[in-house]
Amino acid sequence: MQCRWFLSALFTLSLSSVPAVAHHSFSAEYDETKPVKVTGVVTKVEWQNPHIWFYVDSKDDNGKVTHWAFSGGAPGQLMRRGILKEVIQPGMTVNVEGFRAKDGSNNANGAKVTFPDGRSVFTAGAEDKIPGQK
Amino acid sequence: MLRRSRVTLWLAGSVLAAAGCAALALTLATVHAQDSKARTTDGKPNFSGMYEWPKAEPGLEACRCSATVFNRKLFPPFKPGGEPFYEPRTGDPRHDEPRSYCMPAGFPSGMLSANAVQFTQNKDYLVIVHEFQRMTRIIPLDGRPHRTGQEPTYYGDPVGHWEGDTLVIDTNNFKRWSLDDYYYTNPKEYRMHSEALRTTERIRWKDAKTLSYSLTIDDPKIFTSAFTQEFTMKAKPEWDKVGLFEYVCEENNRCPGGKCATP
């Protein structure tokens, strides 16, 4: 029930304007020519500055697991919008769209997070690119 | 007899505690007045309260971020032979993106970041704390002159004075640093101010819920004249319930300069 409430709040808030994270420009850390789309299970959430990070394990058809790390907005900016850390927790299944880190690692910008019921939220800063948008 | 003394002491203690609470409440009410009619003890406007960051009029130049940036149409001509305004990128992220290494935003860039801002003021000081990087500016209002013999700094040396109900903050002694966040939009336009920068902020109530925030940029090593841009800061008394959130950049800066820690 609590989770449902948070998802509802999340969905509502995701429709509102997104404050920016002013920590760095998108181009400093991510490659906009390398979009990624990952579905998997959240294994850990770091609700810390300067950006939240959440970790996702995705499994391919052969059962091979790949560990991904996605960054989002700053905790304070998310909380000021009413988005608390409970919105994304270990064990949740998510689909994440974003862009890969410039260093080619499995770190990425988690620009769009979609939950199994279809609701989605942007966790990235407004200066970050959103997949599918110019 | 002993019991009566204890009751008297309890009553006295309760009265004192109640008086203390009332005094504290009054103090807090004064600090968090956020009322365009509020005044400090010397009769000046008291801007104490929570605000949105300075925003420009809609339709002006926008950043590929939600930080506010300066409107290029206001830039005066460059000074012939002056210092460069646009800093070429070198490929070294420590130079190109110092903030991604948790270096300070500096003023005025940090003031324009899209985060909450808190003003706390009495007759002697205005303290501005910005949620981004917890940028703190302590501005003396007692008429003292600028400090001298100091090394240039990211946030400069501010002093304030009153012109009627307008607070005027004059800041000098800056380190050469980025003027705003426009390089988020166009990395080739990494706008830098020089060490000669002098800023003048003029703050007054525009209406009961909005501050007028005028910012003059005077950089004689770069521009032929000063320019002024008008911004507004919306009062957000509802943010006072939670106050400012902590921002410790070093806490988990996993990808400085694009080099990420292994997941």
Q: Would you give an account of this structure?
A:
The complex is a heterodimer of chains A (134) and B (263). Chain A has 134 residues and is α+β, with helices and mostly antiparallel strands. Chain A has one domain: Nucleic acid-binding proteins (OB fold (Dihydrolipoamide Acetyltransferase, E2P), Beta Barrel). Helices cover 17% and strands 37% of the residues of chain A. A five-stranded mixed β-barrel of chain A has the order 1-2-3-5-4. The longest helix of chain A is centred in the first third of the chain and has 13 residues, at 2-14. Chain A is globular and about 40 Å long. Chain B has 263 residues and is of the alpha+beta class. Chain B has a single domain, classed as Calycin beta-barrel core domain (Lipocalin), CATH 2.40.128. Helices cover 13% and strands 24% of the residues of chain B. In chain B, the strands form three sheets. A five-stranded antiparallel sheet of chain B has the order 5-6-9-10-11, with no helix packed on it. A four-stranded antiparallel sheet of chain B has the order 1-2-3-4, with no helix packed on it. Chain B is globular. Residues 1-32 of chain B have low confidence and may be disordered. Classes of the chains: A alpha+beta (134), B alpha+beta (263). Chain A binds chain B through residues 17-20, 22-30, 46, 48-51, 53, 55, 67-69, 71, 74-77, 79-80, 101-103, 105-107, 125-127, and chain B through 63-67, 93, 96-97, 99-100, 102, 105, 113-116, 131-132, 181, 183-184, 187, 239, 242, 244-249, 251-255, 257-263.
